[in-house]
Amino acid sequence: MRKKWIAVLAAAVVLMAGCSSKETDKKEVTEHKEKEVEVEENASPEELPYQFPLTGLGTDEESSDRAVAVVVNNHPKARPQSGLHKADIVHEVLAEGDVTRFVAIFQSEQPEKIGPVRSAREYFIDLASGFDSFFIAHGYSPEAKEMLERGVLDNINGMQYDGTLFKRADFRKAPHNSYITYKNIVKGAEKKGYGLDEAPSPAVFLSSEEAGQLDGTPAEELMVKYGSPSFDAIYEYDAENEKYHRFNGSEETVDLESKEPVLLDNILVVQMNHQVIDNAGLREIDMATGGKGYLFQKGKVNEIQWKNEAGRIVPYKDGVKAGFVPGKTWINIVPSISDVSFDSQQ
């Protein structure tokens, strides 16, 4: 059915011919033990003594690593990105215009390189705060700069470390070419005196039995619209592997270096009130009030209500906290719940 969504996007491209979706940056003034973590995806959490707090996947050793949040570029000129396939949670949210960016949270895995890194907004910092993350961005809006200088979150920024901790790739042009290695993230934390050895509090996860008995409306394909075909996201459920693949149109979201696809276990789409606050298109997004949403898991969907709990977006169904399937989660934040559509047909 992805062909159907691609056809919809293609039609939109034709309608938008002659227009450009330029990203505006007028107001912008990237080893905590370098390691490859072997995530026990085939073992149920109950079979291992510990679980990673943000994936619920089992591990032989208790993880004490701090969460790291990185603002990642999603402009077409920045794709494919590096490191997203190892993020525990990715928030996709509008910046200016119809352009989305990612706030990727890393804890259970530490990719060698992440990027392209992009600039911060107030609500990106809010999203990272729910995990007490070490926050990484390259640039900022005036409001975000004030928050970071006030110490809302431990952070380093490419505005101060361009060419040192943050490196420019020669195969892409600025502002789509800023990258940071995990080794340099750790160096930055050490330089600023920040600790990286306190894990975030765990999310709520379903047991293997509960995940296997999930109820809901069949929904093996879904589309999240952001107003521009270049940024509309399509998800397709792979029943054999019990994972969702992510696409922008016909282009699958994969890692630049390894070509590994981003594979997801939970897709949470939530409606939040968006308001444009200036001529440059900067937004305010209400991340506190709560509201409607959809939770896609195991090829099924349930309507949910979301709440902000200590800075995190938490889904509730019938008044009870809805658990996540152990694994990776993608959270799409949209202005209207009507921006998501799904189809259960093969």
Automatic annotation (TrEMBL):
<feature type="region of interest" description="Disordered">
    <location>
        <begin position="22"/>
        <end position="51"/>
    </location>
</feature>
<protein>
    <submittedName>
        <fullName>DUF3048 domain-containing protein</fullName>
    </submittedName>
</protein>
<keyword id="KW-0732">Signal</keyword>
<feature type="compositionally biased region" description="Basic and acidic residues">
    <location>
        <begin position="22"/>
        <end position="36"/>
    </location>
</feature>
<feature type="domain" description="DUF3048">
    <location>
        <begin position="231"/>
        <end position="331"/>
    </location>
</feature>
<feature type="signal peptide">
    <location>
        <begin position="1"/>
        <end position="22"/>
    </location>
</feature>
<dbReference type="InterPro" id="IPR023158">
    <property type="entry name" value="YerB-like_sf"/>
</dbReference>
<feature type="domain" description="DUF3048">
    <location>
        <begin position="54"/>
        <end position="194"/>
    </location>
</feature>
<dbReference type="InterPro" id="IPR035328">
    <property type="entry name" value="DUF3048_C"/>
</dbReference>
<dbReference type="Pfam" id="PF17479">
    <property type="entry name" value="DUF3048_C"/>
</dbReference>
<dbReference type="InterPro" id="IPR021416">
    <property type="entry name" value="DUF3048_N"/>
</dbReference>
<dbReference type="Pfam" id="PF11258">
    <property type="entry name" value="DUF3048"/>
</dbReference>
